[in-house]
Known about the structure:
heterodimer, A: alpha/beta, Rossmann fold, six-stranded mixed beta sheet, B: about 200 residues, Helicase, Ruva Protein, domain 3, 6 strands, globular
Amino acid sequence: MSAIELKQLQLTNFRSYNQLSWECKPGLNIIQGPNAAGKTNLLEAIGYLSFVRSIRQQQDQKIMSRGSSFFKIKGLCLSNKELMELDIVYQNNNKKLTINRNQHRLIDLLGIFPVIFFGPDDLYLVKGSPFYRRQYLDREISIRDRSYCQCLQTYRRILLQRNRLLREIKYGNCKVEELIPWNSQMVATGIIIIHKRRHFLEALAPLVQEIYAGMGAGEYLSLHYKPNIANEEDWLAKITVVERQEIEVGMSLWGPHRDDFTFLLDDFEARFFASQGQQRSAVLALKIAEANYFRQTIGVMPVLLLDDVFSELDLNRQSALLELLQGAGQTFLTTTEIARLPQNLICDATLWQLDGDNSDILKIIN
Amino acid sequence: MYYPEPLNKLIIALGKLPGVGPKTAQRLAFHLLNAPPGEARDLVTAITEARQKIHYCSVCGNLTDRDLCSICSDPQRDSSIICVVEEARDIIALEKTRQYRGLYHVLQGAISPMDGIGPEQLTVKELLGRLSEREVKEVVLATNADVEGEATALYLARLIAPMEIKVTRLAYGIPVGSDLEYADEITLARAFSGRRQIK
C-alpha cells in the first residue's frame, strides 16, 4: 500500500497565519492548543492542498488574513517515494496552482493529494439539508473520477441556461420548444451523474454498515441513495409532463441537482429519528468507511484530518476510531487538551503545541 | 492625468480592444505617436475602410466587401452541402483545411438564454430558407463542442429533420499529434464512443 505524506507546510496570509513554515512528521501529529489558536486553520490549509477550496465551505476571500491581498499555501508531499511540491496562490479572485513549479489547471490537483477530513460540522451530513450530502458526494466522487467533475461542471452550465430559459418562457419571451435541446443535454449529462453517485454509494454502504455494527450499538445502519429521478430511462419522456410546472416556478425541478441520500437506522431515517449520539456514530462510520474504501479502490492511504473529534465520542466509538488510526498513514489531530485523548494514542504520536499569542510557531513537546 | 488629453483618449480607446491591457495600450499609443506620420494615417484609413466596406454576405453571413462572399460566388463550390458555423472566423479555420468544398452558413452566435440569445437572434430562418429553396443534400453542424454549441446543433437538427436532408455533426475526438494521456476524460470518452472501423 502506498501512502501519501505531507513533509512540509508553508503558509502566507492564511487565516491566523501570516507566515508559517512547519516540518510535520509521519504518522500521528497531535496539535494541542487553546481555543482560537489556529488548530483548525492548519487542518483547513492541508485540506486546501487536496481540494483547492476550503473544507469548511468558506469563501476564499474570508480565508485571507485580515488586511492582506493574497494568500499562499505550499506543501511538500511524499508520494510513492517521490517528492512533490504543491503551490496554491490566491490573489484578485484568482487561484493559481503549480505542481513541481509547473503551472496546472485546478482540476489537475484532484486525487493527487487525497485527504479525509472529519470535524464537528460533519454532523450536518446526517442531520443537515440534502445540500450537504450532495456536496459530500460531489467532492468524494470528484477526487476519484475527474470525468465526474467535468460532467458536474457541464451539468451546472446546462442548468443555468435552462433555468434562465424557463423564466423567459414564463414571461412570454421564448417558446416552449426551445427547451428541447436543453432537455436532452440535461438528461444525457444527468444520467452519468446519477450512475456514478449510485455506484459510489453502493460500494460505500456495506463498509459503513460493517463499521457501524462494530461499534456495538446494536442497531442496523444502512445508506440509501435517493435519486430525484427514480427511473432515468424514462426521464426524457417524462420531462415534457413536468415542464409546465417548471415554467411556472422558473426553475428546473427534476434532476440530480436535487438528489439526496439517507442514513437509515433500523429502517428509520436517522436525520429525524436518531439521537445526537447515533447521528455522530453514523458520521464516524461514514468517514472510516470512506478511508477504507479509498485504500481498497485507489490503493493509496489518504491523509486523515481529525478536528477535535475524540472529545465527543464515548469509549466504544473512540476505540472504533483508534482502530482506524492504527492502520492509517499520516494523521493530523487537533485537541484542546492532550489529557482528554486515549492514552494509547499518544505514545507513538508527535505532540505539537500551538500558542494562542504567537500562532506562527509550532513546538514539539514530547 | 499624466498625459495630455488627446494622448489619454488614444490610450483609453486602444485599451478597449480585446487582449489589450493598460500597459499595452500605452505602448501602442506611444508607438503610433513616434511612428512616421504615414503609418498612423494608414491605420486610420484601414480601420475606416474596413468598417465601411465589410458587411455580411447576403446569403451565408460570411464577411465580404461585395454582395456575395467569395465562397458563395465561386461556381466551383459544391452547393449541395452546407456547413453551419457560429462565427465567420470559424469559416477561416475550416477553409484552411482545404478539405471542404461546400458552402457555409454563419449563425452569428449560439443559443444561450443567459445572454438573451435564442433562435430568433440567430440566422436560423435564413438557413431554413436556403434549405427549402435549393437542392441541399447534407447539412454539417459545425457549432462549438460546448453546451451552447451542442444545444444549437440539437435545435437545428430537429428543425431540419422533417426536410429529408442528411444532418451530420462534426466528430469529437483526440487532437491530431497529441498524446492520449493528455486528453481529458470527456473528450476521450466521446472519441471512444465515436470510434470507427479501420478498413
